[in-house]
Specification:
The protein is mainly alpha-helical. It has eleven helices and no strands. It has one domain.
């Protein structure tokens, strides 16, 4: 395909028609796209979340992306935990880097998962697997995923929904970073409560 043909296909009119068709299918594409990304990490999560925000609007796009991504991550965790005694998983846990990551995850629990999953470029699939192999409880993992995915996906949705305004008013990015710091602090508090209960 020639560049001129590709650029004409990616015109504003064609993109809006694609988003309208996407939206007309209901919430399923928005939820499934981020759910599948948990199993296929090579898919562009940022583009998917931004597309959901553009297709469904900020709040519904955020909600669908968050539901799909959270459900996918928790299911990967549960599957890996169930397969933890499998020979391949035993081989994996003997790898020095994986062992170190598991020890670190055991020590820091909720806040480690929360902090790592707050950022869109972190290897979330690897985090899910390592957490499943560690001693982190399912409740801790689910709470950290639900909170961190909410922050990360809202940031992408917020920026992707109206990218032009962030270019015009860069101070909005400071609000996003302030929200991340506030939730990280809240995550530390939650971790200390878990530590007291264990």
């Amino acid at each position: 395909m020639e560049w001129t043909t590709l650029l004409s296909y990616l015109s504003t009119k064609n993109l809006m028609a694609l988003l309208d068709k996407y939206e007309s299918l209901g919430p399923l594409p928005g939820i499934l796209s981020t759910f599948v990304e948990a199993f296929l990490p090579m898919l562009p999560l940022i583009a998917i979340v931004a597309g959901n925000a553009a297709a469904y609007g900020l709040w519904l796009g955020f909600l669908y992306s968050w539901l799909g991504a959270s459900a996918g991550a928790i299911l990967v965790f549960l599957l890996c935990r169930k397969l933890a005694r499998h020979r391949f998983m035993s081989f994996l846990t003997q790898h020095p880097k994986v062992n170190y990551s598991m020890d670190w995850m055991n020590r820091h629990g909720f806040s480690a998962i929360f902090l790592l999953c707050c950022f869109p470029f972190s290897p979330s699939s690897l985090i899910n697997v390592v957490a499943a192999l560690s001693k982190v409880s399912t409740v801790q993992f689910a709470a950290a995923i639900l909170a961190s995915k909410a922050i990360m996906i809202f940031m992408i949705s917020f920026i992707g929904h109206d990218l032009a305004s962030f270019i015009r008013e860069p101070w909005r990015l400071l609000l996003v970073f302030a929200a991340v710091l506030g939730l990280w602090y809240a995550g530390k508090k939650v971790e200390s409560r878990f530590a007291v209960k264990q």
